[in-house]
Automatic annotation (TrEMBL), chain A:
This is ABC-2 type transport system permease protein. Residues 27-267 form the ABC transmembrane type-2 domain. PANTHER family: NODULATION PROTEIN J. Keywords: Antibiotic resistance, Membrane, Transmembrane, Transmembrane helix. The keyword Repeat does not apply. The lineage of its organism: Bacteria, Bacillati, Actinomycetota, Actinomycetes, Streptosporangiales.
From TrEMBL, chain B:
It comes from Actinorugispora endophytica. The keyword Kinase does not apply. It is a peripheral membrane protein. Belongs to the ABC transporter superfamily. Residues 1-22 are annotated as: Disordered. This is ABC-2 type transport system ATP-binding protein. One of its GO terms (molecular function) is ATP hydrolysis activity. Residues 27-261 form the ABC transporter domain.
Length: 288, 326
């Protein structure tokens, strides 16, 4: 029996179990719903703005229509980067990772499990927003081609964001630091990435910076999957730029998948009972 | 030298470095050294463990117990020395080697959302590829929960367990793969007396019935005395004592303390030959003797004496201690 393949199978089961746990825990269910409701409220508030001062005036595309796919992108980025990093740092702090290290092929199972559970959790949080949005927000357009685009953009998006989260989670000393720093970085990126207003409204150099990061491309890709072509007037180059989207997300995925194994291995190697005990002591000091 | 030889013949205690290497050694450590920056934590540790033996590693905090165990577990690289665990250098142990080890740490608070049975089941499955005709892996989850007394908590979430139950779960995960060698880091911290006794039964069962070799650290000297076939005392980065509780007691004081009452009066006498002294006592006074107590130095006396001696740097003088012994 190939033990690595066997551990990967255990990891799949592990990821499913972890995901299942979020569906039966009040706190996790609450956070799925809360996220969705907050964003939905923001979107509904925006639906009054029909973009009169922009080229979108009269197209039937309101600010809510424009922002809905972008909000999905935000949820994906938060899930892929922030949740991964936070969960990894937490697992390091409470000994989950050391437990995996003490088990034959346990780190393989752990990593596969984390990829599966974080992916499912991200998809779930997107679904919880998508369903009510379809019912409450006008101007969205769902076609088979759009559905296909949605699938590959989300898939590539997870591939691009999960390794980044894993790298961040390995580098920061504890979950508090991870959340503190990453939320700021992600917020800044979201503001400049054309999620809640067209990127054409920003100065040129800002828009160039934004286009170097995956948040912009995720937003663009998801907009292309559910907005009418009339919304193209506010996009860079007046095109959905699918090729560039695949290229940019693919490049981030490749970079992350190249670097993440090194960082993860370095972090796992350093895990021991002493470091665990040290962190526990610090965590207790913080509480006390 | 004559004194030392007579001493060894008398007590059976031999310096560890002169112990002949045995074919069934599960752990062999020679001149293990560990240096962090400019601090020497381990300054030449020597010991060995045979199959089925229960070893207790004692020592003050900071003596290097955890470092030693982490090196043996393969979680930490050593600075120098030769280490063999299950016949393999832990620095190069593969997954098959890993499958033969069980590790129980004291700081674990992971997998809070998992249910007890579900978690044991999951971790057991990692050991299935390492099952052999002789050793069936993993253990049956239901039986295992029975053994550690968690059967009625099988469906509970781990985060709702009490401290003692949590530790029992850690032990259960540690032995789910039927390890040949089990590391226990202060296994009974936070146990109530009953849980502690159950745990001691479990350790005896593992070593007697399954020939599991066990290396445990503890601050509970009474526990070490009850559980361990052999006790190692680590102080100042060296093994300063290695022997059964009884052997160690003789090394500190070969005298026996005898207490009795006669005619309402209390007596205490320290005798080199306790048995002989008591025999004479009865021959002389017969029925008048009451409340007889014969007590050799306890492990606590030994521990205090040895650790104190090495911490104050006053090693030496008597034969049979520390460096002079090698």
């Amino acid at each position: 029996m190939n033990t690595t393949l066997f551990a990967v199978r255990l990891g799949l089961a592990r990821g499913w179990t972890e995901f299942r746990h979020t569906l039966t825990s009040k706190a996790d269910l609450g956070s799925y719903l809360l996220n969705s409701m907050v964003f939905l409220a923001v979107l509904l508030f925006m639906s009054g703005n029909d973009m009169e001062n922009t080229a979108l005036a009269g197209t039937g595309v309101s600010q809510a229509t424009l922002s809905m796919p972008g909000t999905l992108a935000v949820l994906l980025v938060f899930g892929g980067v922030l949740s991964t990093a936070q969960l990894l740092a937490t697992d390091r702090e409470d000994g989950t990772l050391l437990r995996a290290k003490a088990t034959p092929k346990g780190t393989h199972g752990y990593l596969v499990g984390k990829v599966v559970s974080v992916s499912l959790m991200s998809l779930m949080s997107m679904l919880v927003l998508l369903v009510p949005s379809v019912l409450l927000i006008d101007g969205l357009e769902f076609t088979p081609a759009g559905g296909l685009t949605l699938l590959w953009v989300v898939g590539l998006g997870l591939l691009a964001t999960l390794p980044l989260g894993a790298i961040a989670g390995s580098l920061f000393p504890n979950p508090r630091a991870v959340v503190g720093v990453l939320v700021l970085v992600l917020m800044a990126l979201i503001i400049v990435s054309g999620i809640f207003f067209p990127i054409s409204m920003l100065p040129g150099w800002v828009s160039w910076v934004a286009q170097a990061f995956p948040v912009y491309w995720l937003g663009l890709g998801l907009r292309s999957s559910m907005l009418p072509d009339a919304a193209l007037v506010e996009e860079v180059g007046g095109s959905w730029r699918h090729l560039e989207t695949a290229g940019a997300l693919g490049a981030w995925a490749a970079l992350g998948l190249l670097v993440a194994p090194f960082v993860l291995r370095r972090m796992a190697r350093r895990e021991s009972g002493t470091s665990l005990e040290e962190r526990r002591r610090k965590a207790l000091q913080r509480v006390g | 030298m004559a004194v030392e030889q007579r001493f060894e013949a008398d007590t059976g205690v031999r310096p560890s470095s002169s112990r002949p290497p045995s074919a069934d050694a599960v752990i062999e450590v020679r001149d293990l050294r560990m240096r962090y920056g400019s601090v020497d934590v381990l300054k030449g540790v020597d010991f060995a463990a045979r199959r089925g033996e229960v070893l207790a590693l004692l020592g003050p905090n900071g003596a290097g117990k955890t470092t030693t165990i982490e090196i043996l577990e393969g979680f930490r690289m050593r600075s120098a020395g030769a280490v063999s665990v299950l016949g393999v250098d832990p620095a190069h142990g593969d997954e098959r080697w890993r499958a033969g080890l069980g590790v129980v740490l004291q700081s674990w608070r992971d997998h809070g959302k998992w249910r007890v049975g579900e978690l044991l089941d999951h971790f057991g499955r990692y050991y299935r590829p390492y099952s052999t005709g002789a050793v069936e892996r993993p253990r049956d989850t239901a039986e295992l929960m029975d053994v550690v007394g968690l059967a009625e908590h099988a469906g509970k979430r781990v985060q709702t367990l009490s401290g003692g139950q949590r530790r029992r779960l850690d032990v259960a995960i540690g032995i789910v793969g039927r390890p040949e060698l089990l590391f226990l880091d202060e296994p009974t911290a936070g146990f109530d007396p009953e849980a502690r006794r159950d745990f001691h039964d479990l350790v005896h069962r593992l070593s007697d019935l399954e020939d599991t070799t066990i290396l445990l650290t503890t601050h509970d000297l009474d526990e070490a005395e009850k559980l361990a076939d052999r006790i190692l005392i680590l102080a100042q980065g060296r093994i300063v004592a290695d022997g059964s509780a009884d052997q160690l007691a003789r090394r500190v004081s070969r005298d026996t303390e005898v207490r009795w009452t006669r005619g309402g009066e209390r007596f205490v006498h320290s005798a080199a030959d306790g048995t002989g002294f008591v025999r004479e006592l009865f021959a002389q006074y017969g029925d008048e003797i009451a409340d007889l107590e014969v007590r050799r130095a306890t492990l606590e006396d030994v521990y205090m004496a040895m650790v104190h001696r090495h911490e104050t740097g006053a090693a030496g003088g008597e034969p049979g201690f520390g460096e002079e012994n090698r």
